[in-house]
Structure prediction request, 151 residues.
Amino acid sequence: MIFLGKTLKFILIGLIASISLTFLILFQIGVFIPPNDNGNGSNGQPIVYKESLSNISLYMDYGNGTVDRWVGFSLYNYNTSVFHALDKHCDLEYDYYAIYDDYLITSINGISQNSTHAWHFWVNGAISPIGCNKYALDNDSIINWNYTSNM
Prediction:
């Protein structure tokens, strides 16, 4: 009887360990990551650029009291990412990273990032978890670029 109790105990421990390891592996490969509902690719989902967009607003805060605004413009020909909106209205410098197929904006309208400040962007009030070329916009999107101290 004692032998059966110890055997059952080892079987249960082995079963629990196997289930835990299985869930750990599944989380690591992304099986349980919820799909990204806006199609911007941040959860490995395909990026869905729309053919055209309207009523886009872009605000550029240079961190010195100067704010440029472009309100109510449209984007066309599937060029509907945050990068495309920025490139339409601003003089840009950027580095391309092939491994991410995305850009790091290093300068906007002559204001360059440095060791203490960089350009960061928000869309509809939320900071982006992905790069500007990967962020697919929707109609009525509000984009804010801020030159701020590094986060």
Q: What stands out?
A: Helices lie at 2-28, 82-89. The first strand starts at residue 53 and ends at 61. The chain is about 25% helix and 35% strand.
